[in-house]
Amino acid sequence: MTLTGPTGPSGPPSGPVRDDAWFDALFRDHARSVFRFVVRRAARDDADDLTAEVFTTAWRRREDVPEGFELAWLYRTAGFTVANHHRKTRPVLVETLPEAGDPTSPELLVLADLEVREAFARLGERDQQILLLAAWEGLQGEALASVLEISRSGADAALSRARSRLRQAWDDSAAATVPGEPAARSTDATTQTR
Question: Per the database record, which ranges form the RNA polymerase sigma-70 region domain (predicted)?
Fold first, then answer.
């Protein structure tokens, strides 16, 4: 009896060849995005080393990188890498953001707003992670689900709940700022997070 695989009798499994050329393309296509992901979550001085560590992991575990979802896998790995780095070093407060960056960058403009920062700081770590993945990294749908390791519908629901909690935190902050007056700016803030 002959066993048949995806490429024929007793052949190797189909899929991309995970060689140097594959890794070079992976690095060329995604290094900048991974670096930006890391530099938003760690000190600028550490970002190069942490990005290199993410790609070292990608090379070592290259057979685990899902075809078509490479960037999502890299973001997830970068999240673990940064978390491990923070456990080894001093804690970084939410208010501590990298100083370097393009001052016209939308994420830096939004985070410069103290009210948004305060509302964001009231959220749980999971909600913060989901909102950052959606807003900063542009992850939606299947890509977000892959990073969070949940179903597509679960990711959509988690993003919706995180946005709702941010909206509530924004409204609470607005109400605390001007006692007795309705939060007139809450609609503008929630529209920006979508």
Answer: 26-90
Closest CA to 193 of 142, 143, 123, 145: 123
Contacts of 133 (CB under 8 A, 6+ apart): 75, 139, 144, 147, 148
Domains and their CATH numbers in the chain: 18-98 (1.10.1740.10), 102-194 (1.20.140.160)
Cα 130 to chain centroid distance, Å, stands at 7
Q: Which residues, other chains included, contact 163 with Cβ-Cβ below 8 Å and sequence gap of 6+? A: 131, 190, 193, 194
Cα–Cα distances (Å) from 180 to 45, 111, 177, 183, 191, in that order, read: 46, 27, 10, 9, 24
pTM score: 0.48
